[in-house]
Amino acid sequence: MSKEKDKKLVEAITPMDTDFAQWYTDVVKKADLCDYSSVKGCMVYTPYGYAIWEHIQRILDCRFKETGHENVYMPLFIPESLLQKEKDHVEGFAPEVAWVTHGGDEELTERLCVRPTSETLFCEHFQHVIKSYRDLPKLYNQWCSVVRWEKNTRPFLRTREFLWQEGHTMHATAEEAIAETEQMLNIYADFHEHDLAVPVIRGRKTDSDKFAGAERTYCIEAMMHDGKSLQAGTSHYFGDGFARAFEIQFTDNENKLVHPFQTSWGTTTRMIGGIIMTHGDDSGLVLPPAVAPIQIVVIPIASHKAGVSEAAAALSDRLSARFRVKLDDSDNSAGWKFSEYEMKGVPLRLEIGPRDLEANQCVLVSRLDRSKKVVSLDDIEAEVEKALEAVRAGLYEKALANREQRTHSCKTLDEIRASLEEHGDGFIKAMWCGDPECEDKVKEETGVASRCIPFDQETISDVCVCCGKPAKQMVLWGKSY
Amino acid sequence: MSKEKDKKLVEAITPMDTDFAQWYTDVVKKADLCDYSSVKGCMVYTPYGYAIWEHIQRILDCRFKETGHENVYMPLFIPESLLQKEKDHVEGFAPEVAWVTHGGDEELTERLCVRPTSETLFCEHFQHVIKSYRDLPKLYNQWCSVVRWEKNTRPFLRTREFLWQEGHTMHATAEEAIAETEQMLNIYADFHEHDLAVPVIRGRKTDSDKFAGAERTYCIEAMMHDGKSLQAGTSHYFGDGFARAFEIQFTDNENKLVHPFQTSWGTTTRMIGGIIMTHGDDSGLVLPPAVAPIQIVVIPIASHKAGVSEAAAALSDRLSARFRVKLDDSDNSAGWKFSEYEMKGVPLRLEIGPRDLEANQCVLVSRLDRSKKVVSLDDIEAEVEKALEAVRAGLYEKALANREQRTHSCKTLDEIRASLEEHGDGFIKAMWCGDPECEDKVKEETGVASRCIPFDQETISDVCVCCGKPAKQMVLWGKSY
Asked: Is A101 within 8 Å of B102 when comparing Cβ atoms?
């Protein structure tokens, strides 16, 4: 029976290189991250998937609070008239919102949309509470779910309802608001690189790709295993546009009535999709230790032999004081357990058997590369700490190598086409004159769209990749999720 | 100016005994717990109010996890056909749900309700994942918001959208499910009594007052300052009713296909309303230390004098290692600050002035009774710890004394009327024959309704307070929020 299970587990995953989309779907399901529901486009976050989100929340929430932000909670609904107050914003979001029209048996006098984002609600509140420069800055964040009526959905990556945090801040000056926008982008980037082991490119969206109502949108872009890009976090600077639309004014320290400057910034459960597609392999999920619900699985080998079960339990208890540990002393075969926890992306496996008891040791196996190491129990905490950090560092290096291998510089549209033909999907670095028509044409003719204008600029050539006129900046192009 | 502010602050609160409802509204607003929004019946949880909820979440979430529960997240929407699967449930909830009828510009083929509670969604998921007795128990919880289209709303107590946690569990046997229902009620009760310092009565709802679809509903009932009762948490046993409706079956350990047994249990942000109405006074909010966003406020006295500001900052820093501390070194007057943090219900105030510096001491003032004590800085952590515990114990005793003073035993409807006339609102203990007609009649004739059948039974008389037939049990009656 255990043999059968082993086989079944391994067979059940489509190899990444055969069909990446199917591989993704298989991993999401086999690693027990979610379930489908009868609500089209909405997913059930099952315990293992939700626990990853809880660790993400814990770490980010701590960073937000360290930088002076406070959590709040705004209503789920936005009256249609409130959504319409800022023109660009409503144009961007109205086509994709869900509308509540009835409460019980009664038709509402005004439709309410289920929040797709909460700028309008925050602005209404800011209008109530910002009167003087002493009331600024307001540094707010909320954890909630939002709804966007997407046509094509995929678990974690694009769903009609998704979980996120949205920061909303108001400042006395434009400089301060811009600095906030940049600070939050940097927090997102650091979190990705350090905690999620996902290297990201920091940059600014082109005007055609900005958030509805924003003056500037900053973003981080991550390269997935298949060469497509994932927008993993955004940070927007609004100037005083919403403040004017919502008549938010304060008395500055020279006693003049002026408008404050605004930002918003967000990350979502799609980060979990990013983790899967950055680190996963043909054995399943691979989780960065910082957000892994189980960091270490302890598996007794030949547990019917005297003392083995007890030693495994003692090891698990001991490590639980510092790490997130699971002991699997079930009667499934060791082979089945190995496959199961590899599928679930548990960073480290500790095997302990009869011979290990005598030698006061165990075998430490890394999910990164299945490397095995016999380690003494004397100093097991330090060994585990080191091994977890090695997983993190190794994941980051692998992901960075994948990105570098998939990044190419091109000077002409022909070069872009040739690069995609030769190397497959990836990032293309190419110069741009700043004209939205060229941006559109690159997409039409090559299939790659502008991902961002990276902060770290290089000079690939002097002229626009499309029109040949003088270039203003280097743009990162690619296909995206 | 500071005098003026002092006056304004104090004047702004309606005394409790003048108009309790207005006092409540004043406290909620002046203590900065929430803001009104243009979405009728929905509130904005502002930082101070939301922080109380975060502390409640942190403590309860920890208790849930200690007892083996896992967090999940289910969709926000329920298709109409899914809601209709369990007959009693849909009858109870359909009249008060919000309906989504359009996604973007398109009319949906099936209406979706915004979840008023998630039994149906959990059941759909359980149907997917429960196959064998090895899959049981399933012990799930989710933190989210739910929507019920209430006509009359009040901040925290009754709002169209509110925040809550809902636990949903499935068990192999009825006994195990009932034990779970009781365990969770006890966790709620302990949390109220220990952490919130709110004494509660544990009991069972009468059949007419059960949750829609439940076989049994257990509850905890708390006595508010004005003599009305607040239902502060509920725990439901469903038998296998939903499991049958949703065709959830598992193979038991004798290889028979059977239905599992189910529970659900919930607490909401109305607990914050309960804290306000249990502990508050004419100076504002009084917060139990376990959930107070600020446990200690440090206020320098005569801070222009040499060393005072520095000493206050040092004291605040030192205490921050163990407590949630705020230093107010603003240029507002000490009197204004006293009123402000009393209004916000901060349990302890530490004053430190020039004379205290020399003596290496500070003045500790309790929010419970404004008692002052000079304490040495040598052992300030232990003094603060003791004082916080004294606030907690004192709040509990005061609340218990209020409840006891407002609880009366009655043998006839006339005695109930006389008691209410003489003592005002409160709990009435009276016997009941078990007939729903008597239950209705008590309410019609006296205005008090059944709150619960307490677990701790007493014998007030041998016969029903209403019909005079043999009594089955003692019921606790009262008016409620």
From this structure: yes
